[in-house]
Design a protein that fits this description.
By secondary structure, this protein is of the alpha/beta class. Helices cover 32% and strands 24% of the residues. It folds into four domains: 6-100 and 291-308, NAD(P)-binding Rossmann-like Domain (Rossmann fold), CATH 3.40.50.720; 102-280, NAD(P)-binding Rossmann-like Domain (Rossmann fold), CATH 3.40.50; 319-456, D-3-phosphoglycerate dehydrogenase, domain 3 (60s Ribosomal Protein L30, Chain: A, 2-Layer Sandwich), CATH 3.30.1330.90; 458-529, 2-Layer Sandwich (Alpha-Beta Plaits).
Length: 529
Amino acid sequence: MSSKPTIVVCDHIHESGLEILKNTDDINYVFAADIDKVALLDVIKDAQVAITRSSTDVDEAFLNAAVNLKAVVRAGVGVDNVDINGCSQRGIISMNVPTANTIAATELTMTHILSCLRKMPYAHAQLKDQRVWKREDWYGQELYGKRVGVIGFGNIGHRVALRCKSFECEVVTYDPYIAPKKALDLGIEYTTNFDDILACDIITIHTPKNSETVNMITQKEIDKMKDGVILINCARGGLYNEDDLYNNLKSGKIFMAGIDVFNKEPATSNKLLDLDNIIVTAHLGANTVESQYKIATQAAENAIEAARGIGYPHALNLPIDETKIPSFVKPYLELTQKMAFTIAQMDKSAIVSIKVEAEGEIASYLESLTTFATVGALTPSIGLEKINYVNATFVAHEKNITLETLENPNNSVYKNKVTIKVETGNGINKISGTIFDEDVQRIVDINDYIVDVIPDGKMILFKNSDVPGVIGDVGKILGDNNINIADFRLGRNKKGALAVIIVDDNINETILEKLRNLPAAKAVYFVNM
């Protein structure tokens, strides 16, 4: 089998993306878009990365078959056909291409709004197909002056709002996940009261599909709308309840609807198609030459980065987007993982809880710090091949390990400090660290012993009674075994002393046992970073 990583293209994408994959020498490229989905399960077993679209469900069967999969790239925005939790539990990174079809989806939404106002497809069909010239049948409405409610103010929603504003509409948006300033700065009204949206002349939805947004518009919401409202959905199927949409279109409560997406697709037998006051398209939100080109090329480039292990653009289940964090945070993430790795080797029994405390600006990133701490703490027992930043919290949960965080007041001499406490059946071990000069990592406290240690290399942690001769005894044992000491750091308190000894070679169990047998020794650990 080739040592090159394999990328499998499961669905049809624009030729531009395929050309990039074909011309990349350090990956194997497999085109599997034309085989049935059962046969695909056999092909996908050798893949490190899969590129999919809406035709392939990344479900339990897919993930069980894809035993070597490291990442899946959804060539498009929507990921409702990707089991992201299932990916995370298996350590598979889920990625999408969120911006490539933004303009296409925005313009399709505007097309539906205008088509509903003027019933353009029906007017076209009468003249083109029936050869009937009856202008009096097609008195429409103007978009000018209408009040438009935009649900969701993301990449597409905010562009639709701006285009409606250019038509001189009153535009109001509802999105609890954005700062109001984002809308207000664009001259768009922002509301936290969903009823303000329901009172609009035209309502268009631009949210992802999840437990919060499925059936976001049902009979209850429609009852609050004005008679003759126009509803638009070019986002995801199921955001509007289709039965309630049908009934209210049929009764005339809803004047017109523009629908590009459906609960079940292809929607050729959907009862909404029987109505004469609905404009429908076959999920065409991304169907422009420009967007298909951008989706394919970005998906291919992202897949190659993932296959090489050098980056995961637009990852949906990584703990942090490194492109969106201040530069000072990254060294703390690495330091936190190293400290947790160190403390886990001091007591190798089953972990009960991991607690991450932080003070200073770094406390704003406690969730991400906890993920890195969990990876570090569990690596000695289960290995890096089974624990990573994607599945860390799932693995901790499976092992009944409690994860806790705490923001402490900044009372120490350090601008920022991270402390990790790992509890086992034997008690709690604690370690603290900080960063000097932007990227210099330091462990500054181990179980209340003040130290100054670079977390790198091979370290002996030697806890002892603070009595004369200990350093000499330790040095003699190491010297007798041809172990060179590179650095020696000592922390002291009322309970005794803790030496952190940096050595050039690995320390075997025989040497550790000799150190533990010294009269002053209380505990001895070896940590290899």
